[in-house]
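Figure 6 in text form: structure in, sequence out.
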């Protein structure tokens, strides 16, 4: 007797996998024979035929968003931003092309010859005359409205302006101003400045360098440093008045030359002069305080006197402590400072 091992494949047509196989014998479908199953299918079909409940717009959006992942949302945002940028670039290009689209026409030689002999009007206010080549105007140019210069403005001749307002930086090689010059801010002049007429300064003036002038007239001069003079000091002014004193004697006289600051006094004694003052010099302008008076005798005759002075803010007197000689002339120089 032949005993062969039992093969499970003898009872099956083929095997799909380890867990699923198809038998060689046909099996009846229980759904086709069982009435309860058929009734169940019929109930499912009736359930599916019933109308579904409608969802609101918010619920639909929530269901839609919940079904999307984060990458899809980022892609949508990037896509919308790209569309907005493209639309803005398109609108800007249309605006630029509209602005730059200026109709241009050439000017022939015959037209230029006609313009030279007439005074025509070229274009309107809304049009633009574009001259690409260099232009030379032999006559005058009149701009009735504003003149805008995009580049540098070079003027070879004289530039006459009734009014000039400069808000920024300006550089002038040589400027001649025939009328008033009003500067509201600071003025920095690096080169030489020549003023042929008067210079009136309402406020303070500060000079860091040397100030050179052939003549300076000022009502008051205040120095914070030393005064260095390389030439003489010349004083001018009205000659002060004088009053005779008892020391002149009978028929004596005196005279004064100079000013309140400096001068000379000549004394001529008469007969029988006495002890006291020869003359009193009365200042034209009184000093704020009693000034310092420097009196110097001129000659040996004046040097032999026992002279002295009296001084006030209004005057000073030249006196003698002893009896001076009669019929004699004396000279004194004086210098007074406050």
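Output sequence:
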């Amino acid at each position: 007797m032949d005993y062969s091992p039992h093969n499970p494949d003898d009872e099956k047509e083929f095997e799909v996998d380890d867990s699923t196989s198809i038998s060689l014998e046909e099996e009846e479908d229980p759904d086709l024979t069982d009435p309860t199953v058929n009734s169940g299918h019929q109930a499912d079909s009736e359930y599916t035929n019933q109308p579904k409940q409608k969802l609101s717009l918010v619920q639909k959006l929530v269901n839609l968003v919940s079904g999307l992942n984060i990458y899809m949302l980022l892609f949508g945002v990037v896509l919308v931003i790209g569309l907005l940028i493209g639309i803005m670039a398109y609108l800007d290009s249309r605006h630029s092309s509209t602005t730059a689209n200026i109709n241009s026409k050439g000017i022939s030689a015959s037209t230029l010859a006609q313009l030279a002999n007439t005074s025509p009007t070229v274009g309107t206010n809304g049009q633009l005359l574009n001259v690409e080549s260099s232009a030379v105007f032999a006559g005058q140019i009149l701009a009735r409205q504003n003149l805008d210069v995009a580049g540098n403005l070079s003027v070879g001749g004289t530039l006459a302006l009734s009014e000039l307002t400069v808000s920024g930086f300006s550089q002038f090689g040589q400027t001649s101003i025939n009328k008033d010059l009003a500067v509201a801010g600071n003025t920095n002049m690096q080169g030489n400045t020549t003023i042929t007429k008067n210079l009136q300064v309402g406020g303070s003036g500060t000079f860091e360098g040397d100030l050179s002038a052939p003549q300076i007239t000022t009502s008051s001069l205040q120095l914070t440093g030393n005064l260095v003079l390389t030439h003489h000091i010349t004083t001018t002014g009205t000659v002060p008045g004088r009053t005779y004193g008892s020391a002149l004697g009978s028929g004596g006289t005196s005279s004064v030359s100079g000013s309140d600051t400096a001068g000379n006094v000549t004394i001529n004694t008469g007969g029988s002069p006495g002890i006291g003052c020869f003359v009193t010099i009365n200042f034209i302008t009184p000093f704020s305080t009693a000034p310092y008076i420097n009196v110097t005798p001129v000659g040996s005759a004046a040097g032999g006197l026992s002279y002295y002075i009296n001084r006030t803010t209004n005057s000073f007197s030249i006196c003698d402590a002893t009896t001076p000689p009669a019929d004699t002339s004396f000279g004194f120089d004086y210098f007074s400072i406050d």
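Caption detail: The two ends are 165 Å apart (CA to CA).
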